[in-house]
TrEMBL record:
Residues 65-113 form the AN1-type domain. One of its GO terms (molecular function) is zinc ion binding. Keywords: Metal-binding, Zinc, Zinc-finger. InterPro entries: AN1-like_Znf, UBL_ZFAND1-like, Znf_AN1. This is AN1-type domain-containing protein. One of its GO terms (cellular component) is endoplasmic reticulum. It holds the Pfam family zf-AN1. It comes from Pristionchus fissidentatus. Gene3D superfamilies: AN1-like Zinc finger. GO terms for biological process: proteasome-mediated ubiquitin-dependent protein catabolic process; protein targeting to ER.
Amino acid sequence: LLRMAELPHIGRNCALAACQLLDFTPFECRDCSKHFCSTHRFAHSCPNKSARTLTEIPTGSEGAPLRPYLCSLDGCHGAESIKVVCPGCELNFCLKHRLDMDHSCPSLQKKEKPSVSNELREKIEKEIKDQLEKEQKKAPIEKKTKVFSADEQKRADRVAVMKLKMKEKGEDLIHIFVETPMDGQRRPIGVGKTWSVGRCIDASLKTFGIINENGVFGAKRLRFYSETGEVIEESEGVATTVKDMGNAVLKKEE
């Protein structure tokens, strides 16, 4: 049998002066870049010991590593005292990289989402289609509008104005009810006693969220009309034309 001393050109001698053992598979220290045998791999009084990272592998009194199982992830120098084998790739890893997603395990690429059979897909699509057809065939629900008597309407108007006053901060206001045929609403609004009808129109549009196109060239203006269908001039004072708790119909001029 050939002895190691007879093949000095193969392997390297341990850099530890007290050892100098010729090793065919020497280990390179990541801190001092010197080569050592397996016995002194971690126990050679490395001069760069203070610069080592927290992943340094501790050793026992005889130089044997206390955590001999190295992490297989490139760039990681961590190790554990027990084997931590990934069932997917069957390689050993440290606790930090033990999960398949933490070391980009090749087994992840093999996992595919279960495909739905054509028969099941057609069944689901048919059920969705049948449900949509049922919804379309349903008769639309008609909203029942309660018809108030004259006294009931006045009482409801007073309640609506009282609720509005609780939110208002201004003083010296009158309240009018504005009917907007475009959305079928009739709503109260507080306006100044000295305001013109034109200013009340602008305030109503802003309060009720209606686009104001009165200043757009060529667009039909939104005007106040009386309940009898007569146009209320914008220059007139609202207090003398609509009055408190009165009604005005807001619609585009004809």
